[in-house]
Amino acid sequence: MIGSVNEYAPETCAGMPSAPPLAAVNQAFWEFWLELRGDRAMPAAGDINPAGFRHLLPHVRCMRWDGPERVVFTLWGTGLGEWLKVDPTGQNVFDLIPKAERSREKVRLENLHRYPCAFVQQRSVTDVRGTTFLFEFLTLPVAAGADGAPRMIGTGAFCSDAPLGRADADPDQRTVQRSFRYIDIGFGVPAE
């Protein structure tokens, strides 16, 4: 398990942005995303081809803005759905997190394209059986598609195979943020 991502300072090596230490799956996707974007701020929606990251596909999620208060969630692989014991495809991201975190999460998702930047967060995630695990999510910007809707893509991975414990399956507490950090992709990051 890695420590809180808030413990690490961002580093830049030879002008190439680097992320704080990440779970292996997230690190591999970070490197793929950097290569895909090339010298642009972010890859275009049409650049995202699952064949290019087939080995990571079980961990990939994609999100698309569908109005000012709605971000549609799509799982591209079955791994996240199997681990979470639910498939959130088609649901509004903001309906999946505690009400107290929604406005802050909206600003964070907007900032991905505004700066642009990326972020990594760790959340305790409680599945439908009440078992809680620490999960790390990496979220990266993707330029708007033909529909004009900005997109985000990222991966998720367990920080440890050992559960944190058991919890009530209160719908508003199924996913609780434990740590958060913006990642500078060459354009600065918001102060939070």
Cα radius of gyration in angstroms: 16 Å
Which structural class do the helices and strands define? alpha+beta
CATH architecture field of the domain at 60-185: 2-Layer Sandwich
Basic shape:
globular
CATH domain topology of the domain at 60-185: Beta-Lactamase
Report on this structure.
By secondary structure, the chain is an alpha+beta fold. The chain has a domain at 60-185: 2-Layer Sandwich (Beta-Lactamase), CATH 3.30.450. The protein is built from 3 helices and 9 strands, in the order ββαββααβββββ. It has helices at 24-37, 79-84, 102-114, and strands at residues 11-13, 16-18, 60-65, 71-75, 118-126, 131-142, 151-158, 165-166, 175-183. Strand 6 (131-142) and strand 7 form a beta hairpin. This is PAS domain-containing protein. InterPro entries: DUF1457 (IPR009922).
Record keyword descriptors for this entry:
single chain; 192 residues; Beta-Lactamase; 3 helices; 9 strands
Short structural description:
With 192 residues, the protein is α+β, with helices and mostly antiparallel strands. It has 3 helices and 9 strands, in the order E-E-H-E-E-H-H-E-E-E-E-E. The strands form 2 sheets. Strands 3, 4, 5, 6, 7, 8 and 9 form a 7-stranded antiparallel beta sheet that branches. A two-stranded antiparallel sheet has the order 1-2.
